[in-house]
Design a protein that fits this description.
By secondary structure, the protein is α/β, with parallel strands linked by helices. Helix content is about 35%, strand content about 10%. The strands form two sheets. A five-stranded parallel sheet has the order 1-2-3-4-5. It has a five-stranded parallel sheet with strand order 7-6-8-9-10, with helices on both faces. Helix 6 (about 175-185) packs antiparallel against helix 7. It binds 2-acetamido-2-deoxy-beta-D-glucopyranose (7 copies). The site of one 2-acetamido-2-deoxy-beta-D-glucopyranose has 4 residues, from helix 10. This is Exostosin GT47 domain-containing protein.
Length: about 550
């Protein structure tokens, strides 16, 4: 009896001790993270995680205790998500700077300049033991050289077009012949020297683009599956704001299109899988689960449903099906079961997750501030009133931005490179810089894509894209180098030299072209010819046409 009592007392003491330790940790957490995100996320797995702070990567990664490194280790395609380990489980002393406490995942208020913070693999790159910053860019994917330049991407695209065809359909269909005819007509497009609406310098081949666009308007029919439950499927209005808005706006316009949508799947050239990658993450990702396998399974089940119910998927193994997804995880979520589909994705890394130029489509990432008025704040100053040479502001996501800051923060009065700017109403300061800078730096974050590319164009600023292996939007048709500057990540120290080497007259030409290309990057409440909706659809159509392989 006495012994029992004794051990009971022991247990009580132990419980007490644990409680005290826990309380102390909680207090630390609370002091360090005034918003208490970590704590709340611990207790409410389904409440959207708020933005947390990021001091990333740690200045001296060798100081991160081994346990953190091991936790954050990422193997190729195994998605043990390294983020969101409750920092409460780690000694507070390592919490603030360790990558595990990164402010990640969903933004509850995706209004303004918030970057995607979604990567699985970039954590690994920046936190693996003491190899300072990598300037050769991402490299653990694929077998190509270190960096694929824009001209090499051109070659890849040409090569892919020439060599790859989608699988021969299991049985023939009249639509295959229509696509083949379209291909012939595009390849033999009448030569256009000048066009009132399309400046030839902006396009890879304006004759082909114009012909293809006309044929799309004349021919294309899209079937949208009715299956799929809201809000992940069929609910565009959930994603009309913030940095993922292009998937929401596309879905909204596609569903509403009387012109392109057909109710008869037999006459469809393309089949749309109408889901939102953003809602998929928001609804199904289990905070701290370190995995998105369940998200992949959810999509797999959907495919099983439509391939069981209809014959269309099986006819082409999905190669006439497409998806439009802006979330960073979209490539990895879709690469296994939807790999044959035409995948329009913001995260268009030609060396990652099987992104295939000529099949997949680089979807523009657009920041939408007002879902009522997507053109709010559109435009900027004329070149003479652009007083800042180069501007960047943003969170220290990924391994490149700290390098950019290291070289250029407060180093030169003409170069304004900041961490995230202090909050201002409607993001006023950020937008003001975009409107009054000559060049806007679009430095990759965790992933290659950044909303800055389209933001720069939107505000009339010449984009300077620093993101190795990033395929820019509408790469099939736009001659990006005529209106944007591409810098290799390793050339960050030469940023200023490179920019000042661009003559004033050349700059004026580029800026003029930025203004001319704007029409292709604008969302309208009602779609208009050549706008971003039609351009996205066109790139999907174009890739379908050039891969057609009739029986
Ligand atoms: C998250 O970010 C906010 C500001 O955006 C910061 O105040 C907070 O401390 C951060 N939380 C963590 C866990 O770093
Ligand atoms: C992040 O936290 C650090 C200190 O941990 C602080 O200096 C910095 O201002 C914070 N950044 C943001 C965006 O809140
Ligand atoms: C971390 O992983 C390495 C290699 O896998 C291993 O040698 C080391 O013991 C691990 N460290 C800890 C703390 O688990
Ligand atoms: C993923 O994990 C499985 C089992 O854990 C392992 O067999 C496989 O090799 C891993 N894949 C990669 C790419 O590391
Ligand atoms: C990065 O570049 C350096 C020097 O150019 C080279 O030695 C190294 O192998 C490269 N690393 C990778 C992973 O490509
Ligand atoms: C553009 O395509 C058309 C049709 O294929 C071709 O005749 C023309 O030579 C091409 N122009 C350029 C500049 O490649
Ligand atoms: C399509 O193929 C799958 C797998 O082979 C099969 O289970 C399914 O029944 C097929 N669908 C139709 C409509 O025949």
């Amino acid at each position: 009896m006495g012994q029992k009592l004794h051990s009971l007392m022991e247990t009580k003491r132990l419980v007490y001790l644990v409680a005290v330790v826990f309380a102390v940790f909680m207090m630390f957490q609370y002091l360090e993270f005034p918003y208490g995100d970590v704590i709340s996320s611990l207790f409410s797995a389904n409440s959207p995680q708020k933005l947390k702070n990021e001091s990333f990567p740690p200045k001296d990664s060798s100081q991160i205790p081994q346990i953190v490194k091991n936790i954050t280790h990422f193997h190729g395609s195994n998605y043990t998500k390294p983020v969101s380990i409750p920092s409460i489980l780690l000694p507070p002393s390592i919490s603030p700077s360790s990558p595990t406490t990164l402010n990640t995942t969903t933004q509850s208020d995706p209004k303004i300049d918030i970057d995607t913070s979604k990567s699985f693999h970039d954590f690994d790159k920046s936190s693996s033991a003491n190899e300072g910053p990598q300037v050769n860019g991402s490299n653990d994917h694929g077998t190509m050289g270190e960096v694929v330049t824009i001209s090499e991407m051109r070659e890849m695209l040409g090569h892919n077009r020439a060599s790859f065809r989608s699988m021969k359909p299991r049985w023939s269909s009249a639509v295959d012949q229509e696509l083949l005819d379209a291909k012939f007509q595009i390849e033999n497009a009448p030569f256009i020297e000048n066009d009132l609406t399309l400046d030839p310098s902006l396009y890879v081949n304006v004759s082909r683009f114009k012909r293809s666009y006309e044929l799309m308007e004349k021919t294309l029919k899209v079937y949208i599956y009715k299956e799929g439950e809201k809000p992940i499927f069929h609910q565009p209005q959930a994603v009309l704001k913030g940095i993922y808005a292009s998937e929401g706006w596309f879905m909204k316009h596609m569903k509403a299109s009387k012109h392109f949508v057909t109710k008869k799947p037999k006459e469809a050239h393309l089949f749309y899988l109408p889901f939102s990658s953003r809602m998929l993450e928001e609804k199904l990702y289990v905070v701290d689960s370190h995995t998105h396998k369940n998200l992949i399974q959810y999509l797999k089940k959907y495919l099983d449903l439509i391939s069981g119910r209809y014959s269309f998927w099986n006819r082409t193994s999905g190669s006439d099906h497409f998806l439009v997804a802006c979330h960073d995880w979209a490539p990895s979520e879709t690469k296994k079961y939807m790999n044959n589909c035409i995948r329009a994705m913001c995260n268009s890394d030609v060396k990652n997750e099987g992104f295939e130029l000529g099949k997949d489509v680089a979807l523009p990432e657009t920041t939408i501030q007002s879902s009522k008025n997507p053109l709010k704040q559109f435009g900027g100053q004329p070149p003479s009133k652009r007083s800042t040479l180069a501007f960047f502001a943003g969170r220290m996501h990924g391994d490149l931005r700290p390098i950019l800051l290291h070289h250029w923060e407060n180093k030169d009065p003409e170069i304004k490179i900041f961490k995230k700017l202090p909050k201002s109403k409607n993001n006023k300061n950020y937008i003001e810089y975009m409107k009054t800078s000559k060049f806007c730096i679009c430095a990759k974050g965790y992933e290659v894509n950044s909303p800055r590319v389209v933001e720069a164009i939107f505000y009339g600023c010449v984009p300077v894209i620093i993101s190795d292996n990033f395929a820019p939007p509408f790469f099939e048709v736009l001659n990006w180098e005529s209106f944007a500057v591409f810098l290799k990540e390793k050339d960050v120290p030469n940023l200023k030299n490179i920019l000042v080497s661009i003559s004033d007259s050349r700059y004026l030409v580029m800026q003029e072209r930025v203004k001319l290309v704007q029409q292709h990057f604008l969302w309208h409440v009602k779609p208009v010819k050549y706008d971003i909706f039609h351009m996205i659809l066109h790139s999907i159509w174009y890739n379908r046409v050039f891969r057609v392989n009739p029986r």
